[in-house]
Amino acid sequence: MTDDIFPARSRWTIHGERLIDDSPHVKVSMASVELPNGVTFEQYVFRMRRCVMAVVLDDAGENILLIWRHRFIVDQWDWEVPGGYVDPGEDGAAAAAREAEEETGWRPREPKFLLSYQPMVGSADAAQDIYVSYGAEHVGDPEIDEAELVRWVPIAEAQAMIARGEIIGAATVIGVMHAVAEQANGSRRTP
Q1: What share of the chain is helix, strand, coil (3-state, %, to 5)?
Q2: Which of 16, 28, 47, 104 is most buried, by CB atoms within 10 Å?
């Protein structure tokens, strides 16, 4: 985009952030914000640890590994790709493989970085990285508190699950739509 299309672009001014809470997973603060027109307000800001999500597809790229779990914040059961926090000093691909194994009992092969996104860019610094793997080895049962069910789901069915509201998380939607695009292209692209 060029400045002649949006000539009045200007940044918001932050006059400071006051820390409200600090935990191992999230820091909550209140930012004092001033808009370009002089209006001021305060806004909560959430700064979160980096997360990884593991999109695990079978060797042919026809099925995606999903977990069924309850999310108390939205009080809804949904199907998700496995994922979680990156430990300090941990490599993203290693974290994605670890989270997938803990949550599903399947160890993904060669996770490759796909993309990074911010799920709540207006309120949170919550970077989430998505890794894609083709193929996985069953190595045991998932940890008891991680998932109610673990299932390999055909990509077309997973896409229909999004439309029915059975998949609501952004990372899972991105992962499913990535797999749909791969199928439409007729080949697996190495992320």
Answers
A1: 20, 40, 40
A2: 104
**Can you read off the two tokens belonging to residue 119?**
């799920």
Query: At a CB cut-off of 8 Å and minimum separation 6, what does 131 contact?
Result: 52, 53, 54, 55, 92, 93, 96, 97, 111, 112, 113, 114, 191
Within the chain, how many helices (H) and strands (E) appear?
3, 13
Residue reference for tokens 């998380």: 169
What's the CA gap between 98 and 81, in Å, rounded? 13
**Model-level pTM greater than 0.85?**
yes
Residue 148 backbone dihedrals phi, psi, to 5 degrees: -75, -40
Instruction: Give the tokens for residue 90.
Output: 């941990």
**pLDDT one-digit tens code per residue, 6-49:** 555 678 899 999 999 999 989 999 999 999 889 999 999 999 99
- β-pair partners for 68: 79, 149
Query: How far is Cα 111 from Cα 132, in angstroms, rounded to an integer?
Result: 5
CA angle 51, 164, 75 (to 5 degrees): 55
DSSP label at residue 74 = T
- The amino acid sitting at 40 is T
What gap in Å lies between CA 74 and CA 145, rounded to an integer? Answer: 18
Please tell me the CATH code under which domain 51-185 is placed.
Answer: 3.90.79.10
